[in-house]
Amino acid sequence: MSPESEADLPADATADALPGMLPEALYAELVAFRRDLHMHPELGNQEFRTTAAIKERLEKAGLAPRVLPTGTGLVCDIGGDPGGGGPAVLALRADIDALPIPDTKSESPYRSTVPDRAHACGHDVHTAVVLGAGLVLADLHRQGLLPRPVRLIFQPAEEVLPGGAAEVIKSGALEGVGRIVAVHCDPRVDAGRIGLRQGPITSACDRLEVSLDGPGGHTARPHLTTDLVTAVARVVTDVPALVGRRVDTRAGLAVTWGRIESGHAPNVVPQHAELAGTVRCLDINAWRQAPDIVVAAIDEVANLHKAKSEINYVRGVPPVVNEPVVTELLRDAMVARRGAASVEDTEQSLGGEDFSWYLEHVPGAMARLGVRTPGERTVRDLHQGDFDADEAAIRVGVELFTAAALLHPTR
């Protein structure tokens, strides 16, 4: 998609007075950087090439990035002394990993060169945005125009439950941080715009794996067996209904199955069955109760059918809950750059995002970054092999983050 396809939105007069606009040469470099990442996607905790590329560019700008102890991902400070009692740090976070799916954009000159790997969630765009913002802010710091320190966080393994954010936090990356912000590509929002919402903007997402066991036998004598196929079928159909009735329906606690396997012959009642799925929840308090509720429901149905259950409930991520003050900081930053028409309200999604783990420690907010070419009729979605982004979104993201850094209060 061409960089010139950016939405023509009115700019607020404040933008002229706010420094830190993205130079055209740097914008072109960021587009090329994003395309290089897109062609060379790496899965979570394997992002060695990506980490090296980011590190090399930041060092070229005179910065001192630090690779995380896990060997992938890095952090980089710009300005100030984060441990010296000065102004609180504003952290800008990007995720750098790709997905294990094939890139189906056969006509794209920058399609993935790695089989069954693709940047189908826009993490390459997020990375280019934070890199670009860091380079612009480093230049402002050299001019004495950066009022407070900024930390760039390039996080690995966002797509791997429970997410790479936990290791980043464990490494001390939030020390001295007062607020943290991020963007996530949204193919339903036009490039040139962002979507914002105070409060929950994503869902909690956990993984659920269940095994059922019992004595099998001949299908001619099911009364002498644990009818495991029926048992697993009842778990599939009854558990979501039970779970949905054991919390406030507004919490949106939902179990959805993605895999079921049992048996190998039509005349044999099997001894073992497996199913797996996800647990999603819109409300953080209900999410904290979810493991007990879901496990109890599975056991209840399994026991009714005399099946022995073994449950592996894998904690994923809580909802991203945007803190109101930081959400309004992003709104003010976008309005300052591009006017009030560039911001739209967005709904809470059922997707999960491990940015939520940072918000357990410091206030922050995530904006939805529009990546749809204005006027485009094709309906695209995340985690699909044909996903792509209007690269004008890179400019918008850089402008958003640089303005936020300049408007960010010192405390």
Ranges with pLDDT <50 over ≥5 residues? 1-15
CATH superfamily of the largest domain: Zn peptidases
Count of discrete domains: 2
Instruction: Give the overall form.
Output: elongated
What is the β-strand count?
16
- Look at the helices and sheets and give the structural class: alpha/beta
- Class of the largest domain, according to the CATH hierarchy? Alpha Beta
In percent, how helical is the residue content? 25-40%
The CATH architecture designation of the largest domain is 3-Layer(aba) Sandwich
Question: Could you please describe the fold and organization of this structure?
Answer:
With 411 residues, this protein is an alpha/beta fold. The protein folds into 2 domains: 3-200 and 320-407, Aminopeptidase; 204-317, Alpha-Beta Plaits. The chain is 32% helix and 23% strand. The protein contains 10 helices and 16 strands. It has helices spanning 14-17, 24-39, 48-60, 123-142, 165-170, 228-244, 284-304, 324-338, 355-358, 392-407, and strands at residues 66-67, 74-78, 89-95, 150-155, 177-190, 194-196, 199-200, 204-213, 217-218, 254-262, 268-269, 272-281, 308-317, 321-322, 343-345, 364-372. The strands form 4 sheets. An 8-stranded mixed β-sheet has the order 1-2-4-3-5-16-6-15, covered by helices on one side. The protein has a 4-stranded antiparallel β-sheet with strand order 10-12-8-13, covered by helices on one side. Strands 7-14 form a two-stranded antiparallel sheet. A hairpin with a 6-residue loop joins strand 1 and strand 2. The longest helix is centred in the C-terminal third of the chain and has 21 residues, at 284-304. The radius of gyration is 24 Å and the shape is elongated. It starts with 13 loop residues before the first helix and ends with a helix. Residues 1-15 have low confidence and may be disordered.
